[in-house]
Amino acid sequence: MGRGPSIENRKGAEDARRGKLFTKLIREVTVAARGGADPAGNARLRMAIDKCLSANMPKDTIERAVKRGSGTGDGAQLDEVRYEGYGPGGVAIMVDCMTDNRVRTVGEVRHAFSREGGHLGADGSVAYLFKHVGVIAFDTGPDAARAEKILECALDASADDVVTENGVTEVLAQAGDFEVLKKALVAAGLAPDRADLQWRAGTTVALAGAQAEAIGKLLDALEALDDVQHVHTNAALPA
Predict the structure, then answer these.
(1) Which helix (H) or strand (E) holds 51?
(2) In whole angstroms, how far apart are CA 51 and each of 27, 46, 57, 178?
(3) Whole-number pLDDT of residue 165
(4) CB–CB of 91/118 below 8 Å?
(5) Sheet containing 92-99, strands listed edge to edge, beginning at the edge strand earlier in sequence
(6) Distance from the CA of 153 to the CA of which of 81, 91, 183, 204 falls in 20 to 30 A?
(7) Is 169:137 a contact under the CB 8 Å cutoff?
(8) 6 CB contacts (<8 Å, ≥6 apart)?
(9) Hey, how many other C-beta atoms are within 10 angstroms of the C-beta on 15?
(10) pTM of structure
């Protein structure tokens, strides 16, 4: 009888995932800190630090990233760059990167697209399909009463929409209203499990079978790249 992965192998894989997540979060803090090292006056930095703390990142690691980004620490300069393209079936994909070498990054992104049956497009070729929104998510599970409370509080605080699906309740807001809405929910005793600004497609393209599998491989390939922070698509894939 075959045996599954050893405890050591599973731990190694988990450590690798955690390390990759930390790298992405540190980059977010570093770039956000360019707008000021004080999170009280820098909403983007405050949000980046919150994500680091939610991932149990040590505070001294966060502080070093803030110093590096604000110019008081050492480290290579990071640039934000976005690539737009198409996957199999013509679905739209946006790839947000942070890099210290644009030539390397665009080469890796282009290779991932072409290897998995997609191709890069020109700037602006798909961005118009996406909207920048605030997403505040709660893992409500089967707790209908809690989901109802979130709905009532969110609508009172002028949320754009509230959606509950598969045990998760998402509160959606305009990007500019995100911070105010999040504070209102927290003040009501509703601490979110995740809160972030995201690019979401206005309409989606439902895929299944071979096309869904091909898009899944392309998204995985892009997300595996070291310089990639976020990947956005208008593809609706099976759970």
Answers:
(1) helix 43-54
(2) 12, 9, 9, 15
(3) 87
(4) no
(5) 119-120, 79-86, 92-99, 228-233
(6) 204
(7) yes
(8) none
(9) 10
(10) 0.79
* Residue of 202, 171, 228 lying closest to 20 (CA atoms): 228
Give SS3 for 87.
coil
Place of tokens 């609706």: 236
Q: How far apart are CA 101 and CA 48, in angstroms?
A: 23
Beta-bridge partner residues of 197: 134
Tens digits of per-residue pLDDT, 172-201?
999 888 989 999 999 999 989 888 888 999
Residue 237: pLDDT band (50, 70, 90) is confident
SS (H, E, C) 176-228: HHHHHHHHHHHHCCCCCCEEEEEEEECCCEECCHHHHHHHHHHHHHHHCCCCE
The tens digit of pLDDT for each residue in 6-50 reads: 555 555 666 667 778 888 999 989 999 988 899 888 888 998 998
How is residue 201 written in tokens? 């497609």
CA–CA distance, 3 with 164 (Å, rounded to integer):
39
| Residue 1 pLDDT greater than 60, yes or no | no
Average pLDDT across the chain, whole number: 88
Position 95, amino acid: V
Cα separation of 127 and 95, whole Å? Answer: 10
> What does DSSP assign to residue 33?
G
Tally of residues, the chain:
239
Distance CA 156, CA 139 (A): 20
Residue 5 pLDDT exceeds 60: no
Q: Residues 74, 100: contact at Cβ < 8 Å?
A: no
Query: Under a CB-based contact definition with an 8 Å cutoff, are residues 212 and 237 in contact?
Result: yes
